């Protein structure tokens, strides 16, 4: 990695940003908010849940274990997409009773246990997923995220590095690796490596704009007003786009010590109702942590 080249790019991006944006208060930045219509629960998912429930109820004594496991897993994944986390966990566990080698069910359980802070169970589930399917496409990400929220940043970085190397053109992999690196390296070194990932990719995925924001190549105002809402994909909704945008804006505000603003952004990510997105899954945890940190820092000194 040519760090001199990366530093030069960062300096250039920073200079461009300084020319086009003036310092703004946190309230001024929040004036640029885009509030999309919350995503509505998909009616097709609800109909499929009803049909699966009928089949499962009628077939408990007739279907073999493999079929029952697959049906319960499918219904659990639909409950998950509808935001019905408790029902989803029940079905994933029942699916594993019938079919103990369902790596995807363990992966989902790992996510759910992370969301509720039960990290030992999360590691156990994600380890099982990787034992059954060593190159599971998302188990390394989810185990890395579990380690990140558990404060085990070295372990998190190892998994998130593995996940990033599997597809360096994915901006979200670069962002999560960066968030872990900030905790184990200097902030400047982590930013240099994020900029290097940006330079190395030829992808035009919109998420690279988030990376540009993080490394100083775009102001927050420009990001919100002129970038985040542009060129939605054919199957992409504004709620999905803003769920991602607000989550990573919240993380950026945390890195800058602006805890109150971070909490607002995480609340906005939650309000999109995009239950399937990783960013929605962890927005509540981030919002609570940001509010607690803001309250702590504004607490009067009574010494």
UniProtKB/TrEMBL annotation:
Principal place of residence: membrane
Classification of source organism: Bacteria, Pseudomonadati, Pseudomonadota, Gammaproteobacteria, Alteromonadales
Protein name: Lipoprotein NlpI
Keyword annotations of the record: Cell membrane, Lipoprotein, Membrane, Palmitate, Repeat, Signal, TPR repeat
Keyword set includes Transmembrane helix: no
Subunit structure: Homodimer.
Primary role: May be involved in cell division.
Keyword flag Heme: no
Signal peptide: 1-20
Cited SUPFAM superfamilies: TPR-like (SSF48452)
Any one annotated GO CC term: plasma membrane
Subcellular location, record wording: Cell membrane
A Pfam family per the record: TPR_8
NCBIfam families: PRK11189.1
TPR repeat segments: 103-136
């Amino acid at each position: 990695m040519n760090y001199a080249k990366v530093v030069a790019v960062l300096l250039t991006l920073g200079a461009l940003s300084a020319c086009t944006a003036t310092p703004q208060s946190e309230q001024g930045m929040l004036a640029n908010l885009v509030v999309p219509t919350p995503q509505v629960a998909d009616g097709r998912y609800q109909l499929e849940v009803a049909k699966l429930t009928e089949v499962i109820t009628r077939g408990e004594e007739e279907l073999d274990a493999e079929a029952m496991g697959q049906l319960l897993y499918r219904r659990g994944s639909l409950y998950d997409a509808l935001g019905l986390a408790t029902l989803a966990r029940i079905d994933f566990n029942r699916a594993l009773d019938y079919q103990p080698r369902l790596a995807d069910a363990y992966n989902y359980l790992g996510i759910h246990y992370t969301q509720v802070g039960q990290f030992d169970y999360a590691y156990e589930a994600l380890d099982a997923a990787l034992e059954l399917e060593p190159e599971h496409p998302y188990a390394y990400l989810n185990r890395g995220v579990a380690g990140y929220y558990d404060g085990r940043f070295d372990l998190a970085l190892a998994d998130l590095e593995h996940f990033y190397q599997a597809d360096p053109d994915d901006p979200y992999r670069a962002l999560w690796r960066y968030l872990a690196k900030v905790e184990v390296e200097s902030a400047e070194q982590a930013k240099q490596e994020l900029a290097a990932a940006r330079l190395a990719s030829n992808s035009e995925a919109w998420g690279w704009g988030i990376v540009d924001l993080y490394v100083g190549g775009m102001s927050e105002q420009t990001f919100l007003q002129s970038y985040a809402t542009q060129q939605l994909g054919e199957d992409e909704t504004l709620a999905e786009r803003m769920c991602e945008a607000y989550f990573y804006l919240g993380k950026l505000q945390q890195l800058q010590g602006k805890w109150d603003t971070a909490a607002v952004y995480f609340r906005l990510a939650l309000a999109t109702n995009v239950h399937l997105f990783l960013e929605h899954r962890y927005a509540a945890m981030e919002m609570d942590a940001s509010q607690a940190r803001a309250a702590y820092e504004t607490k009067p000194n009574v010494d």
